[in-house]
Amino acid sequence: KASDIHIEPTRENLRVRFRLDGVLYPSLVLPLKIHPAVVARIKILGGLKIDETRLPQDGRFSTVIGDRRIDFRVSSFPTELGEKVAIRILDPEKGIKSLDELGLQDRDFKIVEETIKSLYGIILVTGPTGCGKITATILIIGASSTNLSNSFFSTSFLFASPFISSSNLSKALSTSLSGT
């Protein structure tokens, strides 16, 4: 199953590609004239500003397919030929459900467990797109004590929980860099 949908303008047409196992495969070639309408619709679904075409934007939306809720993360990115849109498909029913299933080496699993139980410490979750950073972070947060102070920082995702302080670093950095 595809993990991402990429919608990219070229000089001749609008190209749609799907990411399967980390590789982008061509799927559709559409007329270039529908590019603005397609991008606008996706931006509306994702809660992005449709009139902002000069800056990258991130958003999200959900839909129900059959009896399952599927989440989508949307990113728009300005290019010389127009906005490129990437949609990450997130199926909450698939994937890892517990810390034990993360595949950590025994030594690393013990370190994570000890840090979660500790009054002090930090766990950094890093890696390339699609490697499971958000899944790992959510599982770690879920396993941590609710009577401790937990903070979550991300460049693309905000975690909604009554026990977590969450901040989007991309927005914070762009605001501080622009002087506003």
TrEMBL record:
Give the GO molecular function terms. Answer: ATP binding; ATP hydrolysis activity
Keyword hit for Membrane: no
What SUPFAM superfamilies would the database entry show? P-loop containing nucleoside triphosphate hydrolases
UniProt keyword terms in alphabetical order: ATP-binding, Nucleotide-binding
Q: Coiled coil located at which positions? A: none
What InterPro entries is this protein classified in? P-loop_NTPase, T2SS/T4SS_dom
- Domain Bacterial type II secretion system protein E stretches: 1-137
Any one of the GO CC terms: plasma membrane
**Descriptive protein name:** Bacterial type II secretion system protein E domain-containing protein
Species this chain originates from: marine sediment metagenome
Phylogenetic classification of the source organism: unclassified sequences, metagenomes, ecological metagenomes
